[in-house]
């Protein structure tokens, strides 16, 4: 594997681990605020991000690269509202999308076709990541500070299950 590609993939592994940490922090914040459905939704999201990190980990190793792990910074621990947290999650996913697109561009530039093929799954996944957050944000905007509606949405979000 090209050294530049190895470094970029290790950076993405770091980003995915950071995503795990961020969503776990959001889950903990929702749990502390007695919003168990939103906490569960974020826990499932955190598990998904760990899975993404492991895909990068395995790809680097399968291609003969060296995995390089570095420390993660402490994530933000509290958000002013569910809307603020989910809006931050969407902004984070948009950041990850731009990074995935840059990786695809690098793989094409380096003619690293195995990595380009590997990254196509993430291109599709990022469309889904953003698409699942947008309706939640829209509904949170509609609900505003109306507590009964917020609790109904919380209960609905509790139904999210981890994908196999």
Helix/strand layout:
Layout: H1 3-32, H2 36-62, H3 82-109, H4 113-143, H5 147-157
Helix pairs in contact: 1-2, 1-3, 2-5, 3-4
Looking at CATH, which topology would you report? Ferritin
Backbone CA Rg: 17 Å
Overall morphology: elongated
Low-confidence stretches: none
CATH level-4 homologous superfamily:
Ferritin, core subunit, four-helix bundle
- CATH architectural label: Up-down Bundle
Kindly report how far apart the N and C termini lie: 30 Å
Order of helices and strands: HHHHH
Count of DSSP strands: 0
CATH class: Mainly Alpha
Task: Report on the architecture of this protein.
- This protein has one domain: Ferritin (Up-down Bundle).
- The radius of gyration is 17 Å and the shape is elongated.
- The longest helix is centred in the last third of the chain and has 31 residues.
- Helix 1 runs antiparallel to helix 2, helix 1 packs antiparallel against helix 3 and helix 2 packs parallel to helix 5.
- It has 164 residues and is an all-alpha fold.
- It contains 5 helices and no strands.
- The mean pLDDT is 96.
- Helix content is 77%, strand content 0%.
- It comes from Thermoanaerobaculum aquaticum.
- Its EC number is 1.16.3.2.
- This is Ferritin.
- It catalyses: 4 Fe(2+) + O2 + 6 H2O = 4 iron(III) oxide-hydroxide + 12 H(+).
- It is an enzyme of class 1 (oxidoreductase).
């Amino acid at each position: 594997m090209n050294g530049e590609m190895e470094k970029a993939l290790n950076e993405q592994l770091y980003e995915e681990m950071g995503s795990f940490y961020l969503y776990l922090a959001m889950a903990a914040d929702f749990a502390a605020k007695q919003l168990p459905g939103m906490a569960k939704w974020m826990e499932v999201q955190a598990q998904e991000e760990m899975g993404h990190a492991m895909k990068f980990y395995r790809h680097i190793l399968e291609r003969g690269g060296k995995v390089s792990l570095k420390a993660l910074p402490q994530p933000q621990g509290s958000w002013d509202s569910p809307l603020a947290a989910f809006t931050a999650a969407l902004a984070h996913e948009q950041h990850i999308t731009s990074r995935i697109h840059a990786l695809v561009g690098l793989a094409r530039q380096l003619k690293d076709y195995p990595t380009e093929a590997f990254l196509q799954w993430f291109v599709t996944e990022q469309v889904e990541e953003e698409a699942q957050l947008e309706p939640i944000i829209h509904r949170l905007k509609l609900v505003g500070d109306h507590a009964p509606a917020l609790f109904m949405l919380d209960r609905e979000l509790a139904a999210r299950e981890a994908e196999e």
